[in-house]
Amino acid sequence: MSATTATTSRSRITASICLDLAARLPIPPFGEITEIQSNAVSNYNGLIATVKHQSKYSTALFNYAWSHALDEISNGGILPFGGNSYYPVDPFNLRLQNYGNGDYDLRQNMNASYILTVPYFRGPRFLTDRWQIGGTIFWHSGFPFSVTDGDVSGALGGQNYGGSVLADVVTNPSSHQCGKSATTTPCLDVADFADPTGFGDPGYQRRNQFTGPGYFNSDFNLLKGFKIPSSETASFQVGVQAYNVFNHPNFANPIYDISSPVFGQVFSTVSVPTSVFGSFLGGDASPRILQLKAKFQF
């Protein structure tokens, strides 16, 4: 298909949706109407399991959660996961396509922490006593997103429609899950989708039916303590802490706009939940970071 033909076809599709909008205007003389309703719902189901071990020399904590969160809009529509905005997918029916997986829907989430104090066995206590090993492990499945059509969304913006128009699903994708391989090979095929022909048409997708790459991270620390002479409780501790000790990259959701030439590919990584920088914007905490630590206890 030539570029001219493709543009003409897209213009006809956009015009069709615009006519669909115009024909269903609740009050035709008004171009835009703000309507506030209290009929939105959210639904959360989950299973949480916790295992804790504690002994003289070791402490370990393991948490696992399986859950499913559904709603029409998440976090006020501020997260850019595609298809989620202040405007419903279908402005005349909030529930029809908006009700889907929440932006924060994590089907599986696991975190663990451990501390091991190595008992004294033999040799000079200055070298072999008071060693401590610890760390954390984080793993969860990917966040959901929708496949949108940016060209049609932009064209409809002139018709007072401010939402993200979701693309039609013409062929069920072989996988709804994107992994890290999407950095080189798209995890979604643009041939599985098409320009929407109208709100509620047979191919119209529900919000957040696709899932991005999962997440894994582990921190580790190795510490050595020294007893302060002539003191019963005081001690000095030195060591090293490694954030993202395996230097494992974690990838963000792919480009979800079918009008983009790089649709389905991943181009960015996400930051780790813990780092030497703390929790604030501006610090790239995704690579492995080493920190020397010294602590005086009394």
Helix and strand composition category = alpha+beta
Mean pLDDT: 80
Q: What shape does the CA trace take?
A: elongated
Strand content: 25-35%
The radius of gyration is 26 Å
Low-confidence stretches: 1-5
SS element count, helices: 4
- Tell me how many strands there are: 12
Order of helices and strands: HEEHEEHEEHEEEEEE
Query: How far is the N terminus from the C terminus?
Result: 76 Å
* Sheet with the most strands, sense and barrel status: 8 strands, antiparallel
Helix content: 10-25%
Short characterization:
With 298 residues, the chain is α+β, with helices and mostly antiparallel strands. It is built from four helices and twelve strands.
Can you describe this structure?
α1 crosses α4. The strands form three sheets. Strands 1, 2, 3, 4, 5, 10, 11 and 12 form an eight-stranded antiparallel beta sheet that branches. The chain has helices at residues 3-23, 94-98, 125-128, 150-156; strands at 42-54, 58-71, 100-101, 108-118, 131-140, 144-145, 168-169, 193-194, 210-211, 215-227, 235-243, 289-297. The N and C termini lie far apart (76 Å). It has four helices and twelve strands. Helices cover 12% and strands 30% of the residues. It has 298 residues and is of the alpha+beta class. The model is unreliable at 1-5 (pLDDT under 50).
Give structural attributes.
single chain; 298 residues; alpha+beta; two-stranded antiparallel sheet; 4 helices; 12 strands; 30% strand; elongated; disordered N terminus
